[in-house]
Amino acid sequence: MSQNYYENQDSSFQKNNSEALSEDMRAVKEGRARLFEIAFHKKWHMLASAIFSITSVAFSFVPYIILYLVLKEILPNLSDLSQIDSSLLMTYIAFIAASLVLTVATMFISLMCSHLAAFETLYDLKIDFAAKLATLPLGYFNQNATGKLRKVMDDNIESIELFIAHHFPDLVGSFTAPVVLILLLLYFDWRVGLVCLVPIILAYLIQIVSFGGKNKVMYLKTYQDSLDDMNASAVEYVRGISVIKIFNQTVYSFKKIHDSILNYTKFCIKYTYMCRAPMTAFTTILNNISFFIIPVGIWWVTRTTDYAAFALTFIFYLIFSASVVSPFMKLMYVSNKGDVIIDGIRRMDETFNTPSVKEPDHPVNPNTVVGRSIRFENVSFSYTEDHAHNALSDVSFEAAEGQITALVGKSGSGKSTIAHLIPRFWDVDGGVVYIGDTDIRDLKTDDLMDMISFVFQDVFLFKQSVRENIRAGKPDATDEEIRAAAKAAQCDDFIRNLPNGYDTIIQTQGIHLSGGERQRIAIARAILKDSPIIVLDEATAFADPENEYKIQEAFKELIREKTVIMIAHRLPTIRTAHQIIVMSDGKVAESGAHDELIQKNGAYKKMWDAYNATLTWRISQNESKKDISAQGSVV
Ligand SMILES: Nc1ncnc2c1ncn2[C@@H]1O[C@H](COP(=O)(O)OP(=O)(O)OP(=O)(O)O)[C@@H](O)[C@H]1O
């Protein structure tokens, strides 16, 4: 049921939400202002929570006031207890019971309101953050490790929920309680009240001097940075575990994770040592306010004649001062937590404030785009901002509509970069990429993505059912359409042999698909999408002979009547391509069909000869092996 609830809500909720969070809640503000801006995303819930929290705190002090009244009734009558008005005492007790019930009830309502606000805000933020990630250029993910972004999405955003649900009502209470407390301290006897204030002020001065200002910001930043670093290296360590095992590395020899854990540990130990003295002083002073009251009491008792009034005030303050600790400790705890959360928000806002891929001001309607060819016109591109090294320099070519254009060239010559510029994973630095007659930057990203299918080098499958993985190509596809796409991609057979057929969840129950099987699922996805342009990136690199055959069959289905850009290292797979673009050092070295390029006797011919030489070399190696074994048998 909850699944449907969210599914049904998605479209409208997400839309309203992106308006609310991306525009209103984007980080114009900083620090505490930003924290409260986010917290008050659901402002009526939060106001209600604040009012009930204040009410709860106010009720929580009623027993102390009544205690004063009880003492006032009992102390003057200690010599003759029959003088005590017992019905009045019973009324006081009833008041105490009622105030306790009301304290709990109002705090419960306050927490209810704050939790509702927290869950809705958390949902909005997470959806918005995920949506924002999808709009960022791929370069952003190069510079920001997956572990760091995961931490923002899980830990930092999650901590905002904690702040709204728990810390906010606590904070309101923590501010209200000291105010009520100080008023009460000063109300019953302002002189003793002032004495009680001295240790409170002293304790806070110690806090401010030790942790206030730039020191605290710097410590928090270092703490979060080292935590981020440790997270990022942990993710890298786990993802690269096969390489680590092969090269016989351990958590000690894999320097990055070892250093980051060590850094974090060192920092925490240093910070703990730094906190030791001021924190001990803070808690000791607040826990021992009576230590300040007793000398005053001794001084006072030698100068007073009204012992009843003295005893009433002295006993009351001794009891009441013990209640000072809890609200002040809470205030310190919540304010420390608040600082950690604010730092987390700053990290989240770095992502929110990163410019998304720019959408056109006046987008072209995709139905009016004439033609589905791809044309690069004098395209230059560098991955680095200083343009120290151009991945592409002045690249021009046209991949004709409905034809296959293959990209070949040495490793690092710029083939993948060309493929990545077509769906605007990055924007060109110079020149233009056209689809038909339209600059791709004049199309809305959604429309551009609808026109292109991409079969990546590393096939990524979601941890969902096979059916849902294929459906990603067309979210409203029927089960029949999914099955037809899977058949065309040569994967229907093996999917039906999985434990739950199309409903088998990938990467669970020991379900592990081979590289070729994963690739065919990706092809099924692309077939279902049925876009006019297909970009195949190293698509046949990992296949075994049987898979290779099936993948080729799947490709035939996928690329029928489409504009295809294909990157392949193995020359025979592109021999029949309509056009071959030979890349060298980010430039087009030559282009043409296979036969034309062979005739040109240029770079392609050299590659082809080299390829044929390897074949002969393999055969001659086999031959020589045969010779050796033949000789061996003769001997
Ligand atoms: N994400 C990146 N960040 C920085 N530089 C990059 C990035 N990706 C590629 N490059 C650089 O851009 C140049 C072109 O790389 P590209 O991946 O396009 O080559 P390629 O021909 O596809 O290589 P391969 O066949 O090995 O995949 C290379 O010098 C490469 O080092």
Automatic annotation (TrEMBL):
Cited SUPFAM superfamilies: ABC transporter transmembrane region, P-loop containing nucleoside triphosphate hydrolases
Subcellular location per the Swiss-Prot or TrEMBL entry: Membrane
Transmembrane segments: 44-69, 89-113, 168-186, 192-211, 279-301, 307-328
Pfam families: ABC_membrane (PF00664), ABC_tran (PF00005)
GO cellular component: membrane
Membrane topology: Multi-pass membrane protein
Domain ABC transmembrane type-1: from-to ranges: 47-320
GO MF annotations in UniProt: ABC-type transporter activity; ATP binding; ATP hydrolysis activity; ATPase-coupled lipid transmembrane transporter activity
Key word Glycoprotein present: no
CDD domains: ABC_6TM_exporters (cd07346)
Domain ABC transporter: 374-610
Family matches, as SMART domains: AAA
Name of the protein in question: Vitamin B12 import ATP-binding protein BtuD
Species for this entry: Methanimicrococcus stummii
